[in-house]
């Protein structure tokens, strides 16, 4: 197998700004991409769960990657969400994103239908054998069929194009088992943490970085947390991890995901627009309360808080 450089650092699963008609706001999306890169993120991860990929059409998902690839212009690598509802369409997305020059794609295991581990393996094996672009597995058990350790190990040994996993379970013990099972035979295999509250310990046990929703709101803090941890500045990293946990929990639990992150991003001056999921009056009130909490948190951290007009 050809060994390659592992994916490292903080990749941002970004919100997609919408205009008043609920369509992709291309100008604001481009401004957001520049803002993230200017704030030090290591890579971008469009069409993820935070980016609400299931709420866009296949054509819109492709347009989002096209816009971001064009605006990024090679400044940072792109890990493009390529999950569709079946293998044929997923491979078509892989081909399209490969032509745009993305570093790799991320593919969630089959969703809606819960599959057994052997069929999760069969699904990714079919993709791994036919994709023109490198693939990162995406394990998010709350939304899709879980990817267990034996499946990750088999796929890493049989499919050279499968180069990593983004794990959003937050399960530290499972990550330890995965790294121990996979890395001896695939030193190029990347392990990315998708659960913000455990980024520091995940890095300490051998993860290479994270795909963290908080990075779309406070990229400067997530970048500092990553850098402090890998540099061995553990007291600084612990303090930053505690801060991240406080903000992440507020954004995640105060409103249905990812509305809390959308509300927080508006406080940073990004015109996100209203999401496509209609919200109850109760939820809208909860978001208004969340905005006050997050405004205070941002001010306490000395972070610029200029709400979008």
How would you characterize this protein structure?
The chain is an alpha/beta fold and 309 residues long. The protein has a single domain (9-229), classed as Aldolase class I (TIM Barrel). Helices cover 46% and strands 10% of the residues. The protein is built from 11 helices and 8 strands. The protein has helices at 26-38, 58-72, 87-99, 117-130, 149-158, 172-182, 199-204, 219-230, 234-253, 259-267, 281-300; strands at residues 9-12, 43-44, 79-81, 104-108, 135-139, 162-167, 190-193, 209-211. Strands 2-1-8-7-6-5-4-3 form an 8-stranded parallel β-sheet. Helix 5 (149-158) packs parallel to helix 6. It is globular. The termini are far apart.
Which features would summarize this protein structure in a list?
309 residues, alpha/beta, TIM Barrel, 11 helices
The low-confidence parts are: none
Strand content: 5-15%
The CATH superfamily bears the name Aldolase class I
In whole angstroms, the N-to-C terminal distance is 52 Å
Mean pLDDT: 95
Shape: globular
What strand line-up does the widest sheet have?
Answer: 2-1-8-7-6-5-4-3
Number of helices: 11
Estimated structural class: alpha/beta
Q: Which architecture would the CATH scheme give at its second level?
A: Alpha-Beta Barrel
Number of domains: 1
**Share of helical residues:** 40-55%
Number of β-strand runs: 8
| CATH topology grouping | TIM Barrel
Order of helices and strands: EHEHEHEHEHEHEHEHHHH
């Amino acid at each position: 197998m050809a060994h390659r450089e592992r994916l490292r650092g903080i990749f941002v699963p970004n919100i997609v700004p919408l205009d008043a008609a609920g369509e992709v706001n291309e100008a604001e999306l481009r401004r957001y991409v520049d803002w993230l890169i200017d704030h030090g993120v290591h890579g971008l991860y469009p069409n993820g769960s935070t980016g609400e990929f299931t709420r866009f059409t296949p054509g819109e998902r492709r347009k989002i990657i096209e816009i971001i690839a064009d605006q990024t212009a090679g400044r940072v690598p792109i890990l493009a969400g390529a999950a569709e509802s079946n293998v044929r369409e997923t491979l078509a997305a892989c081909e399209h994103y490969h032509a745009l020059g993305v570093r790799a794609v991320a593919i969630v295991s089959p969703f809606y239908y819960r599959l057994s581990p052997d069929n999760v393996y069969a699904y990714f094996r079919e993709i791994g054998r036919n994709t023109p672009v490198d693939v990162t597995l995406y394990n998010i058990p709350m939304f899709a069929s879980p990817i267990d350790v034996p499946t990750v190990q088999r796929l890493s040994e049989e499919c050279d194009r499968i180069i990593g996993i983004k794990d959003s379970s937050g399960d530290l013990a499972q990550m330890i088992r995965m790294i121990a099972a996979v890395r001896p035979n695939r030193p190029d295999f990347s392990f990315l943490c998708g659960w913000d509250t455990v980024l520091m310990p995940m890095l300490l046990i051998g993860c290479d970085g994270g795909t963290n929703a908080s990075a779309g709101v406070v990229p400067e803090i997530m970048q500092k947390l990553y850098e402090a941890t890998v540099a061995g500045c553990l007291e600084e990293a612990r303090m930053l991890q505690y801060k991240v946990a406080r903000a992440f929990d507020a954004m995640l639990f105060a409103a249905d995901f990812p509305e809390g992150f959308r509300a927080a991003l508006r406080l940073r001056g990004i015109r996100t627009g209203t999401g496509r999921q209609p919200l109850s009056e109760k939820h809208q009130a909860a978001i208004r309360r969340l905005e006050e909490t997050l405004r205070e948190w941002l001010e306490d951290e000395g972070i610029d808080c200029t709400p979008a007009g």
